[in-house]
Amino acid sequence: MRLSTYRTNRCVRMGYPCATSSACTNVDVSGACHIGAVKKQTLCLCMIVKNEAQVIERCLGSVRHLIDHWVICDTGSTDGTQDLIRKTLDGIPGELHEEPWVDFGHNRTGNIQRARGKADYLLTLDADHVMRQDAPLPLLTATSYMLRYDTPGTQHRFKHLMRADRTWRYEGVTHEYPCTDESDGPDVQENLDALVIEDHADGGCRSDKFERDARLLRGELERDPANTRTVFYLANTERDLGHVQEAIALYERRAAMGGWPEEVYCSLLEAGLLRAERADDWPGAMDAFSRAWDARPSRLEACYELASRLRVKGRYRTAHALLGGVVDTPEPDDLLFTKSWVYEWGLLFEYSITAYWVGDYTASIEACDTLLAMPDLPEPIRRQAVLNREFAVGRAAPAVPGPSGGRQGREQTTMTKVNEA
C-alpha cells in the first residue's frame, strides 16, 4: 500500500492524471496508480557537500518527495554530514561518494557526470537551499530549466534542472555554471516556475566565503583575463569585502568588455550604487546609472536609483520627468538580479512623492490609492503612503482663509521616502 500511495502522489506532483480523478487511466480496482501507461519522468538529486550537518536534513527533506535517485559527493566532512544524508534519504536509491576538494567547478563536474543516466533529469542543489514546490511539475521537454531564487529584495534564475542523457560540466572555479557540448545538440533552455529555491545562505562553507571566492577568482583571472563572468563575480566579491575602489574598477572593466547585456547592466548599476553610497561621487553615480539604463532600457532599477536620489536632492521636476515615462512598465523576464519591488511599487511610490512636489496633487493621490490597494505592500511603505495621501489631499482642497488670511490647517513640510523593508 505504501508503494501505491507513493505512486499516486507522484502522479499529482509530476502533473499526470491521479487516482482521485475519473480521467485517470492508470488506476486498478485497488485504487493504485500504475503510471506505465504514461511516461514517468524521474529526477536524480546531485549535490556536493562539506560539513553541512546543521542544514542538510532541511534541504534533503524539501526534495525527498520529488526525487527517484541521488548522487552526492562529500569533500571532507568531519561533522557527521555523511550519516545524516544516508538517514534522511533512506529508502531512495543513491550513491554517496567522498573525494578531496579541488574547486567548485572541478568537484561539481565529477559529481554530475557520475549521475548521468540515473534518471530523466538531474536536479542540483546546495545544502543551504530549500526547494519549494509552487505547482505540479509539468511534462519536462527542454534540455535544461532555469529555476527562480526567492530571496529578499532581489530575484534571479539559475540552471538547476538538466537532462540526464547529456554530458554536463561546470565552468569556473567558483560561481560556476553548467554547460554541455554542442555535439549533443543545442541546449534548449526554459524557465520553470513550479519549483522555487529558497536560499538560506547558512551552509557550512559560508564562514570564509568571500575571502575564498576572492582567492579563487583572482587566480582564475590571472589565467584567463578575458573571462567576463570571472571579472563580474570578482567585482561582486570585492564589493562584499568592502573594497570599494577595486570593485568599481572591476565593474567598469566588465561593462567595457561587452557581451551578455544583463551582466553589463548589473555591472554599471553596481558601480553607480558604490559611487553614490560609499565613494561620495554623485556625478560618477549619475553617469553610471544612466549608462546602465542605456545598456538595457527594459531594466529600471537604475532609473529608480537615479530618480529617487534626484528627489532626495530636491530635483523634483527632473525626477518626476524620469518616473512619468516608466512608472507603469512591467518587470522584464530577465535572469540576473532583478528587483521585483522596483516594478511592483518602488517606481510608483517615488512618483507619488514627486507628483506632489511638482504640484500635481491629483496624480499624487491616485498613485497613493494604487499603492494602498496592493495587498503585499510592505507595511513601512503603506504607512508612508497613507501620510503622503493626506498631505496631497490637503493641498488639493480649496484654501480656507485662517485668522491671518493664510491657509488654515496642517501642511506638509516634507514627503520623505521610507527605505524599502
TrEMBL record:
Molecular-function annotations in GO: transferase activity
Superkingdom of source: Bacteria
Organism: Streptomyces sp. SID12501
Keywords: Transferase
UniProt protein name: Glycosyltransferase
All copies of domain Glycosyltransferase 2-like, residue ranges: 45-140
Residue ranges of the region described as Disordered: 397-421
Keyword flag Transferase: yes
Polar residues bias spans: 411-421
Pfam families for the chain: Glycos_transf_2
